Amino acid sequence: MSQSPSISPTADLTARPAPRGVAAWLKLLRLHQWTKGAFVVVGPLYGQALDSWHSALAVAGAFLAFGLASSGCYVINDLRDREVDRTHPRKRRRPLAAGTIEVRHALAAAAVCLLLSLALPWLAMFAGAAPPVLTHSPTLAALLTTLTVLAYIINTIAYSLWFKNVAIVDVMSLSMGFVLRVLAGCAVVMVEPSAWLLNVTLFLAMFLAFGKRLGERRTMGEENAASARSVQAQYTEDLLRMVVVVTAVACLVTYSVYVTSAPARRTYGMNLLWITMLPATFALLRAILLLERGRYDDPTELAISDRPFQLAALLFALITVAIMAIGRVAVVS
Predict the structure, then answer these.
(1) Computed from CA positions of residues 31, 251, 258, 154, in that sequence, does the dihedral angle turn out positive or negative?
(2) What CA–CA distance (Å, rounded) separates 316 from 303?
(3) What region does 190 belong to: left with phi over 0, alpha with psi -120 to 50, or beta?
(4) Cα 47 to Cα 74: distance, rounded to the nearest angstrom
């Protein structure tokens, strides 16, 4: 089977100087990774709990908590790997590997980020952001959210230390990070998480993680991919292609069951939320197509670069929000 020419993600990076100053801190804290915190909105959105500014602020507090937790964990990972990163053509530009940020300053930043991430759920709940429905249970909501953030921190550090070197376990660990975000969003507004919703999140996250490993092989080649990520040596391309398709199908099937399982969302004689299956199916199949061609080495990069994928994601979000709003009005009336 013919393949389009691969593009090395390390091209032209070796000639660039390592970032300094504010740019170095932005790179160290990985602020662009905070976008993954959007998963905390999923539970409140589908549970129709984003019905007041109190709820919105509480969910925003959970979003910030996971952003800070992820930054703190990234710093710890870079501290541990800085010696190895110095020998890598791309990773040697990381601030700690390049020496543009001192170790003691990085340690302080990690501690601040992690402590704030555990404090934010309490600050949000008791600073006037507790939703009215939580009048008698803000402490429980804050406790559950904090425990979920703590579980995320433990899981992420365990990934950096051990799990990332064990095939399958590495992807399961990464995927649990997304599941925990969904659980935290549910906890902060005390919405019971649906098992189907958790399944969708798990399979989608696994698809993204396996897709990244397949993309790395397609753009870098097997040997270079194994050099950049040691666990790649335990995978085969055939296995990765298979599990990418399997997790994509599992995600779509579980999502289809989820959107048709709540009678309250059926409006005007049918469950309009089914319409979101169309952009969701297109987006996942488009991602598989581009990864197979070796156009991207990371589904996240694909999401911020490919216009058809972006359009499908935008349509999915707009249709979902509009139909949830219609369903809420129908229930109230």
Answers:
(1) negative
(2) 13
(3) left
(4) 31
Q: Which of 120, 40, 115 is nearest to 75 (CA)?
A: 115
Contacts of 224 (CB under 8 A, 6+ apart): 8
Please give the pLDDT value at position 5. Answer: 43
Domain ranges of the chain: 20-164, 194-333
For domain 20-164, the question of CATH label 3.40.1000 is answered with no
Instruction: Quote the pLDDT of residue 32.
Output: 83
Count of alpha carbons within 13 Å of 32, Cβ hemisphere only?
Answer: 8
Q: How far apart are CA 197 and CA 46, in angstroms?
A: 9
Sequence-distant (6+) residues with CB within 8 A of 143 are none
Most confident residue range from 47-56, 283-292, 297-306:
283-292
* pLDDT (mean) for 109-135: 78
pTM summary value:
0.85
The three-class DSSP label of residue 270 is strand
Nearest by Cα to 74 from 96, 53, 48, 47: 96
The residues facing 270 across adjacent strands are: 267
Mean residue pLDDT of the chain comes to 84
